[in-house]
Write a structure and sequence with these properties.
By secondary structure, the protein is α+β, with helices and mostly antiparallel strands. The chain is 22% helix and 26% strand. The chain folds into two domains: 101 residues, Pseudouridine synthase I, catalytic domain, N-terminal subdomain (Alpha-Beta Plaits); 133 residues, Alpha-Beta Plaits.
Length: 246
């Protein structure tokens, strides 16, 4: 039978989600915990790849196992076994062939900025030392919805068949002591959100104008876009699936 796990993690200690040689990852830790508790070698497939240091408030993966009588109990035991920076919320049975990555129809990320130096938010958000023009950043963010090809924001030498993404929302808002950027799409390219935020910060810092976003996207050239912002401010916050797979 196939099962989905809904879980979250704080990414500081990990080299991203996906297994890597000579580096600890969230996938490796979760697979070891599941394999120990189920007394069998368990491989999990995640909803996507997060880079080193990126966090996930909502993430999914799937795995196959003969039968799990009490999924709530397994989730409880997993949480007792896993380190404090990984938490399981739920384990659900899904239809045969359901895929955590390919069946996801929408993903949402947030990027957190802090307005002033805060030692309690150092590992959670990126501190921008200079004033930002938030209306101009929102004007530029809206332009993302006019395009589908985002090669200019993709990590160089990425092996993908297409650079097309359906961006459905992209906006900045003030939340207490933070500025938060929210972006939703059907899929994202590697490093895309961090490159988008870096470009929007250039707009906010008046290094470029909001209208320059058109030129940057049309260029399909990563060197035309802004630098990638630090991973510590990036959160995967929501993954949506068709209801009929559960």
């Amino acid at each position: 039978m196939r099962y989905f796990i809904q879980f979250s993690y704080f990414g500081k200690a990990y080299h991203g989600w996906q297994n890597q040689p000579n580096a600890i990852t969230v996938q490796e830790v979760l697979e070891k915990a599941l394999s120990t508790l189920l007394r069998d070698k368990i491989d999990v497939v995640g909803a996507g790849r997060t880079d080193a240091g990126v966090h996930a408030k909502q993430m999914f993966c799937h795995f196959d196992f003969d039968s799990i009588e009490d999924k709530k109990d397994l989730a409880y035991r997993l949480n007792a076994f896993l380190p404090d920076d990984i938490a399981v919320q739920e384990i659900r049975t899904v239809v045969d062939g359901a895929h955590a990555r390919f069946d996801a129809i929408e993903r949402t990320y947030e990027y957190w900025l802090v307005r002033e130096k805060d030692p309690f938010l150092f590992d959670y958000a990126h501190w921008v030392k200079h004033p930002l023009d938030l209306p101009a950043m929102n004007e530029a963010a809206k332009m993302l919805l006019e395009y589908t090809d985002f090669e200019c924001f993709s990590k160089s030498n990425t092996d993908v068949k297409t650079f097309n993404c359906d961006v459905r929302q992209a906006y900045w808002e003030a939340r207490a002591d933070k500025w938060v950027f929210t972006i939703t799409a059907d899929r994202f390219l590697r490093n895309m959100v961090r490159a988008v935020v870096g470009t929007l910060l250039d707009v906010g810092l008046k290094k470029i104008t909001s209208e320059d976003m058109h030129r940057i996207i049309a260029s399909k050239d990563r060197s035309e876009a802004g630098v990638s912002v630090p991973a510590k401010g990036l959160y995967l916050t929501k993954v949506i699936y068709p209801k009929d797979i559960f």
